[in-house]
């Protein structure tokens, strides 16, 4: 097969055309990337889900047996459901300097740049290999990258450091908050609403629990333990509430979905520990008095560790040097960088496009930012050849 050479825009057009919304398969995109890499003589390895519907992809350009520099991106995108787009989200559309399409910014623009750089990396006499790490299911809690991280240093060669290309407007990001997601199930007892003493109102108990979360949220705002972040504190958010049957029935069940985003300087378990204690001591006893079957159960549904790159982090100092930057930033969204760093791989977030366009209708990336990122990858190639 003849080696495929595309412009950043042409490559992005191909990637955007694969509808890789997280709840769908990403295999057609992975097959395309495999074929592309093969056309340049690069082998790649899948880390697949058991049902075979989704896969990560790992590839090495350069020598084996030496820890490499990882370039990491996710292949999935958020849904376009209920969003009002003025263009077809899965057909890359250029308007002036902007390239519109779902994932153009978050983060197929980055993936297009690194794929297009494969022949350039390959043409160099690299001393340090470049590793490509493509994942799935990032947008549903950074779950897809975890099996691939587990294989690093085992079936897959381990990187020395990882650059995660999430949209940072080409700023070097060395810190982000952690994410902790939960579902709380409140079980009471049904009765006629004229006989409230015979039942346990699950929605009103849930209301007490939600009020406590609101109270803790306001308390966090006064702490000032995240001055680098916007907002500069741990925040708590209840996002979905379901419960009840009819106006004249004391509701038996209520479920609510909530999360908090904690600044790296805080104890990541503080909010959930205090919430459980409050439920146990202040809400459950009264419910139990009316019904011994009453319960409050909170299930963790997701967690992404914070990124707090340590002083002297190799990933951060190298990226600053290659990008010609001298300042680092912190962001409030979670990324796979926290997981890489937690697994022992020095990590940094640095990518084209702005988070302001991510997940929004009419998502776009500036074509010039993709070109600028390719310039950064040139500097990376120089570094990997010399060191
Ligand atoms: Zn993303």
User: Which strand order spans the largest sheet, edge to edge or round the barrel?
Assistant: 1-2-6-3-7-15
**Hetero groups:** zinc ion
Instruction: Provide the gyration radius in Å.
Output: 24 Å
Beginning-to-end CA distance, first to last residue? 32 Å
Classification by helices and strands? alpha/beta
The SSE string, one letter per element, is HHEEEEEHEHEEEHEEHEEHEHEEH
Biggest sheet character: 6 strands, mixed
If you had to describe this structure to a student in words, what would you say it looks like?
Strand 4 (93-95) and strand 5 (98-100) form a beta hairpin. Helix 3 (108-123) packs parallel to helix 9 and helix 5 (202-221) runs antiparallel to helix 6 (270-290). The protein is elongated. It contains nine helices and 16 strands. The protein starts with 7 loop residues before the first helix and ends with a helix. The protein is of the alpha/beta class and 387 residues long. A six-stranded mixed β-sheet has the order 1-2-6-3-7-15. A four-stranded antiparallel β-sheet has the order 10-11-9-12, with helices on one face. Strands 4-5-16 form a three-stranded antiparallel β-sheet. The mean pLDDT is 96. Bound molecules: zinc ion (ZN). Residues 74, 106-107, 138, 166 line the site of zinc ion.
């Amino acid at each position: 097969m003849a080696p495929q050479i595309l412009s950043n825009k042409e490559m992005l057009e191909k990637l955007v055309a694969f509808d890789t919304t997280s709840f769908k398969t990403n295999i057609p995109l992975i097959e395309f990337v495999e074929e592309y890499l093969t056309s340049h003589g690069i082998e790649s390895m899948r880390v697949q889900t058991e049902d075979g519907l989704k896969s990560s992809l790992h590839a090495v350009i350069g020598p084996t047996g030496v820890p490499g520099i990882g370039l990491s991106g996710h292949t999935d995108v958020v849904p376009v459901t209920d969003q009002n787009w003025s263009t077809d989200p899965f057909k890359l559309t250029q308007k002036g300097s902007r390239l519109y399409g779902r994932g153009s910014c978050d983060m197929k623009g980055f993936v297009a740049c690194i794929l297009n750089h494969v022949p350039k990396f390959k043409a160099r006499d690299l001393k340090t290999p470049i590793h490509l790490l493509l994942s799935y299911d990032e947008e549903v809690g950074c779950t897809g990258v975890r099996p691939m991280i587990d294989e690093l240093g085992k079936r897959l060669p381990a990187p020395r450091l990882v650059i995660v290309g999430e949209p940072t407007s080409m700023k070097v990001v060395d810190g982000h908050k952690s994410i902790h997601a939960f579902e709380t199930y409140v079980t009471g007892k049904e009765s006629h609403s004229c006989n409230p003493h015979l039942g346990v109102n699950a929605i009103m108990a849930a209301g007490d629990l939600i009020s406590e979360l609101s109270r803790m949220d306001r308390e966090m705002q006064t702490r000032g333990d995240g001055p680098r972040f916007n907002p500069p504190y741990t925040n708590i958010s209840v996002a979905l509430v379901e419960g009840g049957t009819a106006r004249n029935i004391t509701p038996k069940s209520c479920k609510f979905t909530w999360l908090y985003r904690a600044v790296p300087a805080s104890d990541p378990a503080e909010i959930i520990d205090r919430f459980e204690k409050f439920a146990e001591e202040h809400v459950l006893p009264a419910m139990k008095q009316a019904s011994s079957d009453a319960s409050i159960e909170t299930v963790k549904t997701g967690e992404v560790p914070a990124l707090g790159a340590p002083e002297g982090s190799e990933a951060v100092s190298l990226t600053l040097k290659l990008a010609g930057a001298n300042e680092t930033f912190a962001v409030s969204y979670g990324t796979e960088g926290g997981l890489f760093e937690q697994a022992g791989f020095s990590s940094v977030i640095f990518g084209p496009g702005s988070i302001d366009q991510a997940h929004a209708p009419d998502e776009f990336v500036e074509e010039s930012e993709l070109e600028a990122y390719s310039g950064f990858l040139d500097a990376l190639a120089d570094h990997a050849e010399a060191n």
